[in-house]
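Quick start: what a row looks like.
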Amino acid sequence: GLIKGGGTVAPTLESGGQIDFGVVGGSLVNAGRIAPGNSAGWLTVNGDITFIDSMSMGAGGKLLIELGGTTAGLGYDVLDVWGNADLTGATVEFSLINGYAPQLGDTFTFLLVGGDLTGMFATLVDNTGLGLTLDHLSLVAGGVMLTMPVSAVPEPSTYAMLAGLVALGCVVFVRQRSK
C-alpha cells in the first residue's frame, strides 16, 4: 500500500500510534508534516518512508519533534520506521514542551530506521532557542540522533555565579575609583 499526501500525519492518541502496511509492506510518502505525538509520543511506520518535495520547490516533507525529557516516546517524540527511510530534502523541526530545559550533551535518538537510511535532513528549524543546527545531528546505528550543543540552557547556579561575579566586579571597580 501507499499513503501519499501533503497534509499532516499526526496520531490522534497523545502517546503516538502506528501506520501498518501489513505483511505486503508499503510506503509512506511525506510531502507535508509528520508529528509522532502530541506532547511527546511514538509513531511506528510498518513499511518505508520517503520525504519528498511535493511541488519541486526544493523543500521536502517535515518531521516535527517535541522535546520534553530524555525518555524516548515519553519525554520526546520518536518516529520508528521498520523499513527504509529516505530523508533527502527533508526538514526536521524541534520544539521544547512542558518547560523542559535540556542539558549539555543530552541525546535524543528521534528517528529509528530498521532498513536502509538514505540521505540526511536538508534543513533544521530550531524553535527551542538553543541554536540547534544540522551539525548537532548525527547518524547512529539504526537512526538519527540530536545531541545538545555546548550552548544548551545553563544551570540556574550558573546564572547565580555570574550575577555574583558581576556584583563583585562592581564593588572592586567602585573601590578602585574612589582611591
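That is the whole record. The longest strand covers residues 107-113. The radius of gyration is 21 Å.
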